[in-house]
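Box S1 | Example of a co-folding query
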Amino acid sequence: MAKKKLWRILPVVLFAVLLTVIFVLNHTPEDTFVIPDHIIICLDAGHGGDDPGAVNGDRQEKDDNLNMALAVRDALDAAGHDNLEVILTREDDTPLTLEERVEFANRNKATLFVSLHRNSGGGQGVETWISAAGLKPETALATYIQKNLVEVGVAKDRGVKKGTAGNPKTSYYVVGNTLMPACLVELGFIDDNAADNTLLDEHFTDYAQAIADGILKMVKLK
Ligand SMILES: [Zn+2]
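Box S1 (continued) | Returned holo structure for zinc ion
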């Protein structure tokens, strides 16, 4: 009798296993990167609304991030590729949760995701973060962007980093939960007027172009 029951539920079990396998395959970031025909770049200006991010006097991180996201979009649009679409998590001073940013990128099936931030807390230079997993596509994306920014000129090349500042085994939320290759760029320290803010202001357009070029290198458009 028990054997008979087992045979009856076996198809159900197999079907459940199959569904699980399909789900995992569709929802696990891959170590390989397949470039789709239509490429969607999701730019994420960190913070916004009542969350200014890091602050230095009147200067607020959220504004620097948004201005840079808009400038990177302009640089990508100017590249003039018909199959390249740029989407922004925010285009104005709108507050967004981290979950909303990730949901936006995932729902729109973005090809790549780049989050833009400014650093703070005493330090100098530019760094780019990837997830703790450190998969090849996100490493490539971050490396292209970081290298291009360093070529423009930074106070210090802090490199491509895995995980978070506090723990290499955890990822920044937007990097760790987006389903596409993603990175988070820290465009210098907002509390460093002597070098980082000056460099950002003087090279603003070049920094935007450097980030755009890093992204374009990933997708190898015609
Ligand atoms: Zn930030």
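The first helix runs from residue 2 to 27. The helical segments are 2-27, 61-78, 98-107, 136-152, 173-177, 196-202, 204-219.
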